[in-house]
Amino acid sequence: MSQSFFPILETYTNNLFSTFGFPYDGAEIFEDEENCNINLKKGGNTISSASLSGGEKSALSIALNAALSKLIGRADFLILDEPTESLDEGKISELIEILKEFKGVSQLIVISHDRDFKNATRSRIEIYKENGISHIVGEEDENNENIDEKLGEEDESVKNLTNTQQGLFES
User: Which of 67, 90, 125 is at the close of a domain?
Assistant: First the structure.
């Protein structure tokens, strides 16, 4: 990989990663004989990405994927599968705000079981399983009315919800 690529990728990654509020000065992306690696800088110290917490790794992964998507620019969409895994409530809220403001792609698809994403999405498709059969409830509008009307708070199918695909944040 071209060494001239890394500074630009680092800049995009650092801009996104810094919005999560972790106490790092920035990421350093480099290549050794076999792999590309990422270290974080903190007060003059170098910290391997392998030693990060689960939430820090998730946030760094999201920032790096979004930066790659923006830099390469060939795909006009980004898919994030379970980006909230290992994030605490505060970081999930920050992620939602970051994704609302993300301008790197025209279509962002987030697959998540996290209910905090429910009210943050412009459109949503929910998939639930009942008696071993998957059902698509339908697309939801900005007011979150369509799916809520079909499922209802007391509907047994809500308890059997196994996969929620939520996405298409406004970009």
Answer: 67
